[in-house]
Design brief:
By secondary structure, the chain is an alpha+beta fold. The chain has helices at 5-10, 17-25, 82-87, 108-117, 120-145, 148-158, 160-165, 168-175, 179-189, and strands at 27-32, 37-39, 47-53, 56-61, 67-73, 78-79, 94-97, 101-107. A hairpin with a 5-residue loop joins strand 4 and strand 5 (67-73). The chain starts with a helix and ends with a helix.
Length: 190
């Protein structure tokens, strides 16, 4: 089911009809086909993206050419190379559609102008950024403290929709394990 960005925002802040309309006016629609890249390393990242439909992944390529998945995003989630977006540095990540996807693009300059006109949007995005920070910290601590099996079970419990839609080798990569290890874990759990 397509995600509605106004419903998404209204879970955190109350908006008048005029504020909803003004927010919608600064959004742009983006469509991607499966395997199409939204962001590549070296690009300037001026936008963050809300997923209306589809599934994407953000990943880093190391010097040996190995992919390291940083984030998945499905309906009702945000994705970008946030380091590049917030620091105005060139992107280090790829953001790729795993499925055909429909997104809403939010330009940083227009967002900053919106913050001045309607400050409650700044509160909304602060809450989103704080939530993302907490999730990242949990992921780091999990990788330090938990076994592969525990991390996989946590992933399935926390992200059941992603687990159903993403290939096992992508999940293994995200969790920092070999696909064979994940296969053994899944076999043991079956």
């Amino acid at each position: 089911m397509p995600a509605d960005i106004i419903d998404h925002i209204s879970r955190e802040i109350d908006l008048s009809e005029l504020e909803k309309s003004e927010f919608r006016s600064i959004l742009s629609e983006v469509s991607l086909h499966k395997k199409e890249l939204l962001i590549k390393p070296g690009q300037t990242v001026q936008n963050e993206y809300f997923v209306v439909e589809g599934c994407l992944r953000a990943y880093y390529l190391d010097e040996q050419g190995n992919k390291h998945i940083i984030q998945f995003a499905i309906e009702d989630w945000w994705i970008s190379d946030f380091e590049a977006f917030f620091t105005n540095q060139p992107s280090k990540l790829y953001v790729e559609a795993i499925e055909d996807s429909k997104l809403l693009s939010l330009n940083r300059t227009l967002l900053e102008e919106l913050y001045h006109r309607i400050p409650k949007f700044e509160r909304f995005f602060r809450l989103k950024t704080t939530g993302a920070f907490v999730s990242l910290r949990k992921r780091i601590l999990s990788s330090l403290e938990k076994s592969n099996k525990e991390r996989y079970l946590d992933f399935c419990e926390t992200y059941p929709e992603i687990e159903k839609r993403v290939q096992n080798y992508h999940i293994a990569n995200y969790l920092g394990m070999k696909p064979e290890s994940l296969s053994r874990i899944r076999k043991d759990l079956a």
